[in-house]
Amino acid sequence: MVPQCYLNYFVNENRRINVFDIIQLCEYYSSPKDLAVRRDYYRDYLKNDEFIWEEHYSAIAESILPKTFDYIINKSVHAKSGEKILTDVIKNNMALIIITQLFRTEKWRYHSYKTFSPEIPLILNGFKEKLQLLEKRCGKGYFSEKGIEAFARNQYLEFANSEFILYTHRQILLDRTWIIFKSIKNKKRIFSSDNPVLLYNIDLDSFDLADNYINDLNNTLFFPLSTGILLMILPNNNTQLIDFCDYADCVLDGSEKLFNFHNRGQMMQASRQVFT
Length: 276
Prior knowledge:
Number of helices: 10
Number of strands: 9
Order of helices and strands: HEEHHHHHHHHEEEEEEHE
Largest sheet: 5 strands, mixed
Radius of gyration: 19 Å
Strand content: 5-15%
């Protein structure tokens, strides 16, 4: 659910990541290849060629992630506080990475799918052919738990990765205020998780999924790029955040209070693993 090329930015000097399991309430170290992984999670059995969405994600987002992250991190470390470092090209790349990551995690994809209520048009699209594939792969009892799961996965993945969804959601982000915060002076470690794109509803003071969606004008988005660099994307119409507009596309020294707030949100929205 989270690519290794992203997790590589959260390793320690021994190439290990400190993990907190919010289900088992335990802490341990692991390597990027063993984290946030589920076998055949992106394999779609309701396409004739058994399409593997992981290959799609790798092609459109993971291929641009290292150079985009490296640019932002290197610029942030060496820039003075208040210096503008984000370009249109970098923001376009980051918007695609963020939206792809948001929808590739099951928690957000299901939440988004319910919010848009697209069941009727998506189910009717190729419905007969998909039923035939279900019967072929699952036998006569294709409305079994396995068959329904395969059908649901097909619908979620097709919806989340449609050109319309990718374009409109990227544009929502690009129309907002982007700021990079770095943890240099206080050396506060920035958390990430197996659900790393974090949304917070300012008006409701809530990290709860039910109160958050990316097109809500009250949402602030957090996306950690490393243990020392945090991207925030802020709504432009909120009076509480008006002062930040002067620092659009800039890097700032983040406060310990800000990073603690973000880290708490990662704990709340993670599916299971928080990378500390």
